[in-house]
Records
---
Amino acid sequence: MKPIIRKSALNKYIKNIWILENHDIEKTDHSLKFFADGCSGLMFQQTESGVFIGDKELSSFLLYGQTVKPIEMKCSGSYKMIVFVLYPYAVHALFGLNASELTDTCLDMRTYSALSKEVETNIRQAVSTEEQVGIMETFLSNQASSANADLQIQHMTTFIMNSNGTYAVKDLQETTEMSERTFERKFAKQVGVPPKLFSKIIRFHSSIRQMDKGKYEKLSDVAYENGYSDQSHFVRNFKEFTSITPRAYQSKRVSENESLDGFIQV
């Protein structure tokens, strides 16, 4: 399923806004799969029977951190999901949280502050998607007014993302005048994962986006164009973040192209 993708005026912290909406009168079961992309996010969801990851029901309003393990969300019937995809450094800068504590998990924003609890109520009572998006954007703008972004980490993450994860992390660390250990600790606290893992995630995300766009003839083309030393290296990296091989993913994408569910990549 393809989300509606929008941009935000708060583009220092918000990569994009996307909206997934399905009006399902048949009350069928849905499965939505998400993979690592190097970003965190603020999400609001409305469903008839809740959204679950395994046996855990998700909050209607949540902040999620870096995703390393593949995620499968399940729900039944109609649903709406509004996600503000945040740049890697945004969780720490906007909310003052240790980003590594949110890796592969999420925070119920109704418990973050009295304001965020009120925001959840306002979003839920809003009469349109446009109004809901506006409430969330205003909330993030208020958080940004007192944000304290580390420009050095912001620059590092942007550089790694722009190079699709192919630039040597060691070379970046040497420009910081920090020891390798200090750099890794600071990066993980503000981004959620160590710099080498972040770089690996970005390279994976670049490769899977290339596959989704169909801009290749052979899978080996994807491997070499994304800086993998060989195809076996690419396959190992791909399985680490999806639990399946690139060829299996390719086959599933074809079979799910006409479905409302499936793999979600933004």
---
Amino acid sequence: MKLLGQGRTASVHDYGKGKVVKLYQPEIPEEDADREWAASSLAFSLGIRTPKPYEIVRIEGRIGLVYQHISGVTLLDVIKGKPWAVSASAKSLAWVHAEIHSREGGGLREQKPMLADHISAAPLLTPEEKQRTLHHLDRLPAGYSLCHGDFHPDNVIVNDGSWIVDWMNGICGHPAGDAARTLLLLSIGSMPENTSRTISSLINLGRRRLKSAYLSQYLKASGLSYTSIDEWLLPVAAARLSEGIPEAEKEQLAKIVRERLTPDH
């Protein structure tokens, strides 16, 4: 099968007849694939523009999810190719995100218990820091909306519209928490060690512009306040520490957590 894309958790291959198969790496727990299948199937049934899920298969011992093949480029590629049009890309990202949140996510994994589990397992934080973060999370409102859980420009395919992919982190929860996760993903991320200072500066400038434009448009589309989203950044940042990301990014996240735990924040 022709390889179409390769990620940390899975690879995507041509499956023929207008279909692709997303094959999970052998070390990825099968429950992760089950969660993606449940979330993508629910999103499709609710009218979200996402590739149609067909079936679950096993190929050479690896579990695979068969989807409709969507041709196009990612929104991230669009931004890279037309950085001067970042505002238009951010608007598209925000309004599609708000559309997802307009649907109910009943039956999927719940947001707050999931975040609590990840916070408890987070490295770089002391037991006291974890406890204070969990206490903060406990005070936040529960929600019942469909949430993507990993919504960023590389998970949006663009052709004659915007298609949402990669529902492995799909959950039922509060839209503000999902938006906070997106703001975090747009804000930080490690770069290769050989990245020049000039390139790093340009990338950081682009991130700030994209984040600002996304936030402005999402507030308009959702009707939420900035404060309601900002309240979720502490637990979302702490929870992301438990993911398989570079150490440099974890250090940035730990810094955010500690800054937000200070009394005068």
---
Amino acid sequence: MVSNNSEHRATLRQWQLFILTVEKGSILAASAAANTDAAVVSREITKLEHLLQEPLLERSRSGVRPTWLGAQKYKEAIKILHDINTAFSETENTSIRSSTIRLAVPGALTGLIAKPLAEFEKLQSSNHTRIEINSYQNINDIQPENFDLIVCLQTLPNVRMIAYDIASISYGIFASPDFIAQNKRISDPTQLEKLPLIHSKSEKVLLQGPFQSITITVEPQIRINSNEAMISAAVEGLGIALRIPLWAAEPLAKNGKLRHLLPNWHIPNAPVWLLKHPGRKISALEKLIQFLRKTGTFHPTLTKTD
């Protein structure tokens, strides 16, 4: 009996479906992104697991996540596919690749940076420049080599890329008028420790006043790691939202749904960095970098640094 060697080798399609499944967090979401049936995705990944004789995914009702081996194979597959795409782009698809800028942006900044990016695309319309925006929550969850530019907030990752300091974000403390009316007048930062707070985690938060700085201990009653969700909770009167970007809160502060508490006390600004691969050469890339650095501000309440 002659065996079919192709049955004992993984295919490019299998690795592509595996990568999609890891990134999307579920087989169903991966099948939708790949425009195929969930059964096909599941079958192809199962074939991979049989070839490797170990599971690549931990499956549950809430979705999937990579096993230790799956995480290692995911990194390897990303690199291999990147090398393949690079090879094709240098031959058959150079013109298309050179006109597309792949950008990774923190989810918290996606709404802020979308407008200047759209303006840049209009200015470059004659050059057919297209910008692909990919949102991420944790920079450790993305593969830097897959992007031409990466926007990151506050802390620079340990990657070999050129960093540009393009702006800094100002933060404030906000609550709804109803919440403020139901509580005594808040005039001192230490009062916050005794009130229901909305924040991402338990921590000590530095507040800088006109003549002194103070650190308060934050034990949030409601823990939320999304700007939009924190703002919604504050509007509903569920507590005081700490560290809300002024640009995000400004529309609701103008229409009276939120009020800025302790405006003379400031949470330290967070720098916004733009990272670029040193060897990446795309015609419009340098223009985009200069555009973002010279735009002034992305928003009136986003403070630009020199």
---
Amino acid sequence: MATLITIIIVGFIGWFLSGLAIQPIRDSYQSLKQFTADASHELRNPIATIQTNVQMALSYGNSDPQVQQRQLKVVERLTQRLGNLVNDLLFLARSDSGMLQIKQQTLPLDALLIEVIEEQRTVAQQKDIFLSLHIVEPDNSNEDNFSLLGDWDQLARLFTNLISNGLEHSFSENRNIEKEEQVSAVEVELKKIKRDRLQQLKVKVKDTGKGVPEVALSHLFDRFYQVDPSRKSTGGSGLGLAIAKAIVDNHHGQIKVESELNKGTIFTVILPI
């Protein structure tokens, strides 16, 4: 009898431990299935629209040239969106597989942020959003205060994604009527910090959007995740924040997000020097 009980206990423990061991594989498989489904959905919609416009152009070849022009412009926009989506998927695939090459060089992060801000300035003005950069100069000021080892193109893409995200969610048309007197703004701050005796660079990107519910914060860097599924990003692939996190990870940094409903969201990036 004692032997039977021992066998049952050992069998139960084995079954329990096997379940624990296979759980990460099960979770990974479910994540892969969800990612594949989301990617297929994102690809299928523009392809279907392109097909519809091409079929209409072929069926009504003698239609008004202005109508044909509009159809071609729709096709052009959708092919650009598809190209962006495919490029984003390839970037993440290379990052996941460890094949993403980083062209490391010593670069001035302050100059990089100034360049990104200038590139986004027109978009901000079109949306009536105040876009600013504040560089906190350390006490021992010198030319190399904000230099780090990294990939210029990847870091530029990282902060472009974060600032674009802030501009999108601070868009003045999305503000509540009672808050119309409040100026929509995206503020970027760069400062040098010391943590665990190591010098690091910290960049904050703060917006005045409607904020993100607390339950959604842990999912913001998931691929294709939408805080509000009924509100699709205009022209984006839904991968911007996932790519931002991948770039930070590739530079051995950290990224975190905090948000307050109806007040805004702050993304904080910390990069080693």
